[in-house]
Amino acid sequence: MKLALAAASARHPAARAGAAPALQGLSLRVAAGEQVAVIGPSGAGKTTLLQVLACAMPPTQGTLTLDGVAPWALPRRELQRLRGRLFLAPQVPPLPPRQRVVTAVLAGRLPALGLWASLRSLAYPADIPAAHEALARFDLADKLFERVDRLSGGERQRVGLARALLAPARLWLIDEPLSALDPTRASQAIATLRDEAAVRGVTLVATLHQVDTALANFPRIVGLRDGVLAFDLAAAEVTPQHLSALYAQHEDELHGGPAPAAPFADLPLPTAAPAAVMHCR
Amino acid sequence: MRPAFRDPAWAGRVFWTCAALVLLWPLGVATEFRPWVLVEPDNLRVSRQFIASFFPPVVDAEFLALVARETWRTVAIATAGMTLAFLLAVPLALGSVRVLSVSALSGRMAVGPVWARQVLRGLMIVLRSVPELVWALVFVRVVGLGPTAGVLAIALTYGGMLGKVYAEILESGDTHTTQTLMRNGAGRLQAFGYALLPQNGAELTSYTVYRWECAVRSSVVLGFVGAGGLGQQLNNSMKMFNGGEVATMLVVFMLLVALADRISSGLRRALG
Question: Does this complex have an ipTM over 0.90?
Fold first, then answer.
């Protein structure tokens, strides 16, 4: 899927009323099948950019077109169908604690399934081999029938990524896929995403905090700072000067200092779901 | 004592305690709250006679068989009523939950869905604001004396109650998982089954079991207006001044509530 953003501005969904918009007049074109890494310091607007591209919220100004179609001009039903062809993986993996991994992964396929087929798959998982295959790509095949709340933070993040492999999507928008992974797992995960995207001809846009990983793995790098495009270059053309300008006053993030990225990686994960509370209403 | 060692919060506590008492006074007057009449000699004698009549409880085989039958009927009324209420509540709750709105995913909800939700909420208010006792009196006239009236009364009141609380539970939990699925193109019911329900399943179950216990208790009250079960027998025995029978049935009733309590805590632990 090819996408084009023209002079688009947007606010972070949780922003205060008076705050400056997270994206300011951003223009970006990505061709079908291209692989792009978005880098920039914290608060640069990376997550908001992915949200706009995923049709999670309309740009306040400017336009978005996906494969030549303006999604916000579509009727609601058509928009929802278009959303089925996009896959947004948020930074915090969206997995219910009491769900089993197999169901969580198969949920990626929901837009392609009818209601009846998806309800039947809740009773007995419809395509266990496919879920197994996707998990194996992320080294999680043995967790197939485990409950999500028994997994570590890094395992949950990889389950969230495995979901992409089952989604009927033509555009993958992956937010900070490596924030909770150790270096080995991180390079394995990024290689899997890149290979699969290339094989399927899926367009891949990922935000990354690890500049080295972005430069080593992605042919095209988009630098974002304060909601404005800082540079948009082939990876080989990105110089240390570009990077130091991009990360000025945020040098610790550039040099892999105390990782500020993951809001949840440092937190102790709730290992067991909280006990059900009795409501006397 | 030196001023430095005086608790600065003390004056505030005294003031708010006095203020609470002053505010409670008119409520006590309005409800004719005079607890000392309980310990006046005349009233004490009456109470003693009433409680003494409970002993000994009636335990002959014939009566116990009758109690067992009526207890079973009470449980059946509560369970059938809860099942109907559940069937009524699920669509009402799903229809009125804001989390499952596609248009609310990106900004404000569209006008049509807003009105549909208001109508469903209004319907639930009507259903649960009429007490089950009143519904039972209505249905006793329509379908005659017997358990059917009790079942229908519980179904309507509890349907409204369950629908409202289900919707509240679904709204109050973490909606990140549900919203992500819908943003990736899943339908409302798909998002419910794959995210919202597993997210809140334990709490919903626990609340449903607690309401079933309430339904058991309430079906006893409904028996007094002729809706069958243990309550009707209790009413008969009281009218005949047969304290022993009343005592037996009260004990059975306590056991029933204790049993429901065990079941619900066991279920909650299994789901925890």
Answer: no
Name the one residue in this structure whose structure tokens are 């008119």. Answer: B26
Is the same domain home to B114 and B29? no
List, edge to edge, every strand of the sheet that includes A61-66: A23-30, A3-10, A61-66
Of A98, A113, A280, which to mutate for an interface test with B (greatest number of B Cβ within 10 Å)?
A98
- Say yes or no: B80 and B32 in one domain: no
Can you give the residue range of the structural domain that contains B194?
61-271
Predicted TM-score of the model (pTM)? 0.80
Examine residue B54 and state whether it is found in any structural domain, yes or no.
no
User: Which CATH code for domain A1-85+169-262?
Assistant: 3.40.50.300
Chain B contact set for A278 (CB, 8 A): 206-207, 210, 264, 268
Contact B103 A82 (CB under 8 A): no
Question: Residue B114 falls within a domain, yes or no?
Answer: yes
User: Residue B102, SS3?
Assistant: coil
pLDDT one digit per residue (tens) for chain A, 281 residues: 889 988 888 887 677 667 778 888 899 999 999 999 999 988 888 989 999 999 988 898 899 999 989 999 988 889 999 999 999 999 889 999 889 999 999 999 999 988 999 999 998 998 899 999 999 999 999 999 999 989 998 999 999 999 999 999 999 999 998 888 888 888 899 999 999 999 999 999 999 988 888 999 999 999 999 888 999 999 888 888 888 888 887 777 776 544 444 444 434 444 444 444 444 44
